[in-house]
Amino acid sequence: MAASTIHSAEDARRQARRRLPWMVFDYIDGAAGQESGAARNRAALDAITLRPRILKDVSQRSLSAQILDQQSDRPFGIAPMGMCNLSAPGADLMLARLAAHNRVPHVVSTVASTSMEEIIAEAEGNAWFQLYFSGEGSGTFKLVERAKFAGYDVLVLTVDVPEVGRRPRELRHGFKMPFRIGPRQFLDFALHPRWSLTTLFKGRPVMANFDAEGYDFDRTESRARADWGTLSRLRDAWPGKLVIKGVLDVEDARTLVSAGVDAIQVSSHGARQLDSAPAPIEKLPEIRDALGPDFPIFFDSGIRSGEDILKALTVGADFVFVGRILQYAIAAAGEPGLEQLWDVLSDELSIAMAQTGLTTLDDVGLRE
């Protein structure tokens, strides 16, 4: 399929579903439990309406935004996603180039399939590093030092995965990293020859941030030892900006501010961890009210359009991160597909701004 056939995130998802092996698509697309949390996220976003305004001169509109004292060309960036090169070889670097061209943050996952050094170079510095605390923590703090040495200025600690959520679609396919190839997986790959041959030629994706660290990362290893003391150690060890991702509770948000973090990210991990988690978009205004108008609050989970982005900004977010729909676009049509979907999101946002009487994003929100 050509990139020009992508007119929405759903177009990209539909094409990705045809192109990817079932195991890979369900890893990217799946959510925890019965996936009612993902449905709840979508329903909550759909329930929010925007306020149309008329007879305002909206002929000149700007999508630029401020994030952690830096100017961004868009009010949305790239969320951390593990093993992106499963969607297509080189996907991590496609995302990095997109970040460079649009001056937006690309949040690089601990379990990225390209090294953090390569990604920040390709992103021309427009990269943050996302961190999981794992096991007893020694490997985690090695990654902190490595990120510091690589030139990262912003660290994003993900705190909503004390144990990896059960995602039945993954489990049914026997998804593991590295791949374990049995008869079912062999058939799956054989029925998707374009993906399989390209991946074979380029080399199977690996978790690239662990080759030189002297330890292996076990995706299923418990992360349950992280506590407020861990956060204190991390705050002392990290000289740059520290963002905490995966916040859904007002009390937790207040405590994080007291602990000296620089921003929080309201998120349910795209409903991939706790099926019964509340819809983050419903918690966002509560947390904004609790923290006041000036503390930086970011948002992700369930974003599918430019209108969704404007909704999140309207109810309290300073900046929005977009995740798996970018992988759909890459799987559907490679880098041109990614660029096409990014333009679609930008156009949808710009049109929604015009419909609601906005020329800039400075006046968005409920922070009068």
Commentary on this structure:
The chain is α/β, with parallel strands linked by helices and 368 residues long. The protein has one domain: Alpha-Beta Barrel (TIM Barrel). It contains 14 helices and 10 strands. The strands form 2 sheets. Strands 3-10-9-8-7-6-5-4 form an 8-stranded parallel sheet. Strand 1 and strand 2 form a beta hairpin. Helix 4 packs parallel to helix 14 and helix 13 crosses helix 14. It starts with 8 loop residues before the first helix and ends in a 13-residue tail after the last helix.
Short summary of the structure?
This protein has one domain (3-355): TIM Barrel. Helices cover 43% and strands 11% of the residues.
Annotation keywords:
alpha/beta, TIM Barrel, 8-stranded parallel sheet, 11% strand
Q: Strand order of the main beta sheet, please?
A: 3-10-9-8-7-6-5-4
Would you count the extended β strands for me?
10
Approximately what portion of the residues adopt beta-strand conformation? 5-15%
Structural class: alpha/beta
The N- to C-terminal Cα distance equals 46 Å
- Overall outline: globular
Give the rounded overall mean pLDDT: 92
CATH superfamily: Aldolase class I
* Corresponding CATH architecture: Alpha-Beta Barrel
Largest sheet: 8 strands, parallel
Query: Would you give the CATH topology?
Result: TIM Barrel
Helical proportion?
40-55%
Kindly give the count of domains: 1
